[in-house]
From TrEMBL:
This is Ribosome recycling factor domain-containing protein. Pfam families: RRF. Belongs to the RRF family. One of its GO terms (molecular function) is ribosomal large subunit binding. It comes from Candidatus Colwellbacteria bacterium RIFCSPLOWO2_01_FULL_48_10. It comes from the Bacteria. GO terms for biological process: translation.
Amino acid sequence: MSNLSAFEQKLKIVTDGLREELSGIRTNRPTTKLVENVTVDYLGSILTIRQVATINIEPPRDIVITPWDKGALPMIEKALGEAGLGLSISPQGTIIRCKLPEMTQERVAELGKLVKSSAESSKIKIRMMRDEANKGVKDMKDEDEKFRTKESVQKQVDIANRTIESLVEAKLKEFQE
């Protein structure tokens, strides 16, 4: 039974990894994740924007970055420009306002393919994990136990696949907003 809980944990790691990966893909909705990990050369150290500033969202398409030290403003602006995020960056006094432009249909289709590709990679990992778990089941002596274990493994795989599908649907829906 502990093998089943370990298997369940591995499935959770795969689905959580996909969730994290999808959260970094840009949609028509601004999110702090778009800029928070951009690296800034600040006072001789390489730091992320979230380490040197607060990041807020102002609907409908603005990301507002407020550095804790005003001297970091030009360095953050430069880092955002070099990051190639496709944002319109404008410093305004003590803040930097990043406007998220409307995505083209072509870009939406391209990102949709990326989302589906990431999901398929996760499903492949899950299938490989299921096959590995089923190989371990073959060594069991009791036929009833083999059947129950295989059934439990398949139920967990089905749950993980449904989770992946719902993540993909939610992400694709975000592109349309």
